[in-house]
Amino acid sequence: MPAPTRLQALAQRAMQARDLWPDFSAAALQEARALTATPPDRFTLPGATSTKTVVMQDLRQLPWCSIDNDDSLDLDQLSVAMPAADGAVRVLVAIADVASLFGRASAIDEHAAHNTTSVYTAAQVFPMLPERLSTDISVLVAACERASLVVELEIDASGSVRASDLYPACVVNQAKLAYDSVGAWLEGRQPVPAAITAVAGLDENLRVQDRAAQSLLQQRHAHGALTLQTLETRVILDAGTPRELRVEQPNRAKSLIEEFMIAANTATAEFLSRRGYPVVRRVLLPPERWDRIVALAAALHETLPAEPDAAALNAFLVKRRAAQPAQFADLSLSIIKLLGRGQYMVETPGGAPSGHFGLAVSDYMHSTAPNRRFPDLLTQRLVRAALAGVAPPYSLQELQQLAAHCTVQEDNAAKVERQVAKSAAAMLLSARIGQVFQGMVTGASAQGTWIRLTSPPVEGRIVQGYDGLDVGDHTQVRLTHTDVERGFIDFARVK
Description:
5-stranded mixed β-sheet
């Protein structure tokens, strides 16, 4: 095995510093090698005797497809759509049945429960599950029969989900598709990809999926879901050394998958609640720094209510996107920073659901990525118990402890990803000490003042002249120092 690159070594040390395990134990790897992916003909629950038999539906003949990044291997979900009566659409989302492959007493589960998430750094991916699972037998790879849990959604012409169900099924991924090429085709910028034309009827099926997703999006926005445009970057490496920062653009294919996942997550939460099972919810509480959001709007000659109001905030965002599309990503980033981070909370049976401020939904959880997020795996185990008619596999106390731990580790994983990205950016900027850049303040607190440059889109700390700056302010800064090992990029404000 070749020696790790400098950036890989930094990533591994960052994982360890944040109490994340970069490597799997020998026991976990041995367990993974012994697993097989043969889909069963009926639904079984590891470690328990089911009180009823659940036969898996055979849906292999449907034109399922996955849409993800072109280099993604941990494919968790497939989708397909069928027109229904009255202009409605029946959308099926198949989620990889990861929970059937290993139990809570396994070394695989010990690692997953500790890290709670896959960590995607610029240098290396640290998967939550061994690669034998996360790139092979527990994912919905093309042309292979796989067990799945299917979320069925009936979406009316207005974009409301008027009915939903959940059941096990055997599926086959007919086409592994990529966001960029599918998005360009749906938007009329490129011809239909060859992977789509290779499957009879898939092009029209994707058109139906796209129309359903757009109606879901419009319905959420009507209820106050926030219109935000994040600027995401990807580090392009050359022999392990950063060569450029590439901006990832939003497109219709990404929107399609996002809308289906939000709808599937909401339907799964409702499924568990209806059956009296606890729900590990994903919650974004109303922002504590709403006053700063009000101030940002006022600076743009707009008025927001004194108390947090998602619908009013979204109306403001829609107006600003139309008025200044080139500056909308910066405004979105300011709002995202001020909204704060989400967290996992347990809702007991019969309890009132906690909402998600940014998505304008109250019944929300994470359930569609069990290969890379532990809360999704927890949810899948709860769903399997509900389908099989057995008691929940976790006590409420266990779920509450795990939810709190998942929130902490998700934050740790995000810090690792940011730290490695900053180390990569420090490498790129190390030859540009003394140059002046334009940027926007992304953080201002007792811990420091942070700025993201307009070009290249990297973030660093203002160490001189930061007095009076707050989130959303634009200013010029001079690059004064970089530290690749610690991921430090330091600036002085140019007044």
